[in-house]
Design a protein that fits this description.
By secondary structure, the chain is mostly helical. The chain has a domain of about 200 residues. The protein is built from 12 helices and 2 strands, in the order H-H-H-H-H-E-H-H-H-H-H-E-H-H. A two-stranded antiparallel ribbon has the order 1-2. Helix 5 packs parallel to helix 10. The protein is globular. The two termini are about 30 Å apart.
Amino acid sequence: MHTVFLDDQGHLRNGWRILGWFALVMAVGFILGHLFRFVPPSVRRFVPGPWIEFLIFLLAAGICLQIERAPLASIGFRFGDRWVKELALGTLGGFGLMAVTAAVVFALGGFHWIRTPQVGIGTLLKGAWLYLAVGFAEETGFRGYAFQRLIRGIGVPGAQLVFALLFALAHWGNPGMSGATRIWATVNIALAAILLGLAYLRTGSLALPIGIHLGWNWTQGTLFGFGVSGTSEAGWWTPIFHGRPTWLTGGAFGLEASLPCVLVCGAAILLLARWKGSASPGGEAFTA
């Protein structure tokens, strides 16, 4: 019993902590899901679903941290000037990743753009609000408490591999996930998970990965008009494809299902892997 549940220091093993967090996610999600039904529709339309997911993940983590007597800052949420700067830097980085990918596909004759009529600043702001929510939700869920406890349990490489697979599998139900697209998209999404994991590991903060996630999705979808993990939307620009293979353009799924994105994402991973890191106050930077 001692070795199954407790480690050598008499502390609950990290695997059980992760299972406890997951059970709390289910319980908190059930409660909030029912409570959210009483929120007026006029309010609900300003609160995208991912913000509710973020709240669920955060509350579950908060309960676990309260039991451990650890602050919320310990999982990467120490808000302040540095946190905001890392968020902004990550957003710029996510924009850069998609801009370079789009430039490569464009140069290879994959598409051209036309300006989307009747799409203005309001669409850009709405997209930013949505993808900020997605960034907070998915990074709290996939790079937050559970990811960090798994690192303590099996180390950085194992945790990165497990959560890269989980992140990819979580997108398998998205529209367009079939055939060759499923292969390229799965590889790209897994690489993106490793990239985002490194962004946390090098800073000890969730600000940088949230920013990258925001910049990646917003630029790909709201600005450039491509699909975002299979979900289409009217962007500031509309790409007109030239009939080139989907492995080059990503097709309706988005640039993240293309070979150029694999190369760009891989290059970004190598750059982050070479960076020694810089811990945020209250966080811990990892060089492994």
